[in-house]
Write a structure and sequence with these properties.
- It comes from Marinobacterium zhoushanense.
- This is DUF3775 domain-containing protein.
- Helix content is about 60%, strand content about 0%.
- By secondary structure, it is mainly alpha-helical.
- The chain has one domain.
- The radius of gyration is 14 Å and the shape is globular.
- The two termini are about 25 Å apart.
């Protein structure tokens, strides 16, 4: 069972879709420099974006274990884990947790699709109007 409210997850999916649909958003698939914080550097250009700010706010308002669950959902939807490995995904997310979770998540251009796929595996669907 998920600890993050499905309405919250659906809002995150909606925000991720809106953010990544904007023309000015470019996030390289691979780092362009050896710096570990390449995604945060790219995303810094969007600091004034209200969609980006709302996404960050929602993630940062979650408890650490809930943030870890969202990361594990990303991995599940991306195919890094399958549903039978859910506990392993949660453990790995907990081991790697830090205070840059929101930036890590939004740096994935297909985040909305990954989260939606993972939710579907748990039997949840977001209504998209």
């Amino acid at each position: 069972m998920l600890n993050v409210n499905s309405e919250t997850l659906c809002r995150l999916i909606q925000l991720a879709r809106e953010f990544h649909a904007k023309e000015a958003v470019t996030i390289p698939e691979k780092p362009i420099s050896p710096a570990d914080d390449w995604a945060r550097q790219v995303l810094a250009d969007h600091a004034g974006d209200l969609t980006f700010q709302e996404f960050l706010s929602i993630i940062n308002d979650l408890e650490p274990d809930q943030q870890q669950e969202v990361v594990a959902l990303l991995w599940l939807g991306r195919g890094d884990f399958d549903q039978s490995e859910w506990r392993d995904a949660l453990i790995e997310a907990a081991d790697g947790w830090n205070d840059h979770t929101a930036h890590y998540l939004i740096a994935h251009p297909l985040l909305a699709d990954y989260l939606a796929d993972a939710l579907d595996q748990f039997g949840f669907r977001c209504d998209e109007a």
